[in-house]
Amino acid sequence: MAAREIDPRAPEPPYRQIAADLAAEIASGVLAPGRPLPSEKELTERYGVARNTARSALAVLRERGLIFTVTGRGSYVTEPASGND
């Protein structure tokens, strides 16, 4: 899937634009539960951003409970929460 263009002049910071793009891919099933996300290196190439920007985007998705990270292995899409909230 082609990455959306990141607009550095937009009011939303680039890392949030990336997080929104990846969240949309998760919601649409492009990135399915249990599947790995692109690596930080792949995200930097895909979006043309610095590694810290990619890392911040992943942190946003982690905080929202959409992904989990395994040190040394990468980040993965979480299973959808059951309706017990």
How would you describe this structure to a colleague?
This protein is mainly α and about 80 residues long. It contains three helices and two strands; from the N terminus they run H-H-H-E-E. It has helices spanning about 15-30, 40-45, 50-65, and strands at about 65-70, 75. Strands 1-2 form a two-stranded antiparallel ribbon. Helix 1 (about 15-30) packs across helix 3 (about 50-65).
Overall average residue pLDDT: 91
Rg measurement, Å: 13 Å
Query: Strand order across the biggest sheet?
Result: 1-2
Helix content: 40-55%
Through-space gap between termini: 32 Å
Structural class: mainly alpha
Q: Which blocks of ≥5 consecutive residues have pLDDT under 50? A: none
Q: Sheet bearing the most strands, described?
A: 2 strands, antiparallel
Order of helices and strands: HHHEE
β-sheet strand percentage: 5-15%
The total of helices stands at: 3
Give descriptors for this structure:
two-stranded antiparallel sheet; globular; mainly alpha; 85 residues; 3 helices
Write the layout of secondary structure elements.
Elements: H1 14-28, H2 40-47, H3 51-63, E1 67-70, E2 74-77
Antiparallel strand pairs: 1-2
Helix pairs in contact: 1-3, 2-3
